[in-house]
Write a structure and sequence with these properties.
Number of helices: 4
CATH topology: Neuraminidase
Shape: globular
CATH class: Mainly Beta
Distance between the termini: 38 Å
Largest sheet: 4 strands, antiparallel
Order of helices and strands: HHEEEEEHEEEEEEEEEEHEEEEE
Bound molecules: calcium ion
């Protein structure tokens, strides 16, 4: 299999390591491509009328909020799947290339406080724009919905110390079971400087914050460091395993090699040193070099480019026997949802694929 290798200079570096490393057994996972025997997940179109919808978050009353990348609208869909015409809130975004309003998450105590968090690339003019130079920053903000569904002006909680990239801005935000806020930031398509591997820089990482934007003292890389998982390229989705096995993380690779990983706190998913199942000699060596923090993926797409987005895990067997713990992965280029089941003994995966003609909302 021919792969693009942007870091050929590393080969020479690794050659200088002892030959004993060459004989080490590499961590390896053999993805199984057999379809799953049962497929109880059904995709149903619930509503339409969005302008480039990207993410959604469920509210306690059964309605959900949906982000529109280019308009900066947050739109509400009722429990009966009626799309409210007027947006809940309208953010001034820079939506050039992959920028825009990218992420949304309702606070775990939304019923009490009405807080909704959003991730976006802010315009520097107060108006939506796609001018490449008219971006202010990448931020996480919080607004409050009152009981009538009226939004208060957003308050910026986190301004990420980076220059927005035209590509690879990440943008998935999620509250974890510990009620902390998790944020994915891509490497902004500037990976030649190994930025995803640097533990002092937020690019190419999943970050962990308190709900007020402060950094938890028990973060895995230190009390003043927001990094939770590193070595990422551009992650649009992640989800905690309800069984407590870790954090399932999707990542978009270069020219294919999209991935699904199961990461523990403080772990390194390899980019840009490694970007798939370890099957090349220099990647095996790189895996050894990265050491115990490196975690190889549980699945990769090889030459295909499904462009994974959201990740979800079915928490119980309400959808049928054998469905509990199944992992669902949204796909942008190969529209539809891919599903996985994780073999608890080998931590490898079996996959099932149900192609769709165009994107649907996932009904769970
Ligand atoms: Ca707007």
């Amino acid at each position: 299999m021919q792969r693009v290798k942007p870091l050929q200079s590393l080969v020479g570096f690794f050659l200088s390591l002892s030959m004993s490393l060459l004989s080490c057994q590499a961590p390896s996972v053999a993805p199984i491509s057999e379809p799953l025997s049962t497929s109880n997940v059904k995709l149903t179109k619930l509503t339409e009328g969005f302008d480039f919808s990207v993410k959604m978050t469920l509210l306690p009353d059964g309605s959900f909020l949906v982000t529109e990348k280019n308009t900066g609208f947050v739109r509400r869909v009722s429990p009966t799947f009626h799309l409210q015409h007027e947006p809940v809130i309208d953010i001034a975004v820079n939506h050039a290339s992959e920028r825009g309003l990218l992420g949304i998450a309702a606070h775990p105590e939304f019923s009490r406080n009405g807080y909704v968090y959003i991730f976006y690339v802010a315009s520097d003019s107060g108006r939506d724009t796609d001018h490449p130079k008219a971006a202010s920053d990448i931020r996480v903000a919080r607004f409050q919905l009152d009981r009538d569904g009226v939004a208060q002006a957003p308050q910026t909680l986190i301004t990420l110390p980076v220059r927005p990239g035209p590509f690879h801005n990440g943008g998935c935000i999620l509250f974890g079971p510990d009620r902390n806020l998790y944020v994915s930031l891509g490497e902004l398509n500037r990976h030649a400087n190994m930025i995803s591997q640097l533990k002092g820089n937020p690019r190419g990482k999943i970050l962990r914050y308190h709900d007020d934007g402060s950094i938890p003292a028990d973060n895995p890389l230190g009390a003043d460091n927001p990094i939770y998982v590193y070595g990422l390229r551009n992650t649009f989705g992640f989800s905690f395993d309800p069984r407590g096995r870790g954090l399932f993380v999707s990542d978009n690779g270069p020219n294919g090699h999209d991935k699904l990983s199961l990461a523990m706190p403080g772990e390194n998913l390899g980019w840009p040193l490694i970007w798939g199942v370890v099957d090349q000699w220099y990647e095996r060596l790189a895996a050894r070099f990265l050491g115990r923090r490196y975690r190889h993926p549980i699945w990769e797409s090889f030459e295909r480019r499904p462009a994974p987005t959201a990740v979800g895990v079915i928490p119980n067997d309400v959808y049928g026997l054998g469905m509990s713990g199944r992992i669902l992965l949204g796909q942008y280029m190969e529209a539809g949802v891919r599903q996985f089941t994780l073999d608890a003994a080998t931590m490898s995966v079996a996959t099932g694929f149900r192609p769709q003609s165009f994107a649907y909302t996932l009904l769970l």
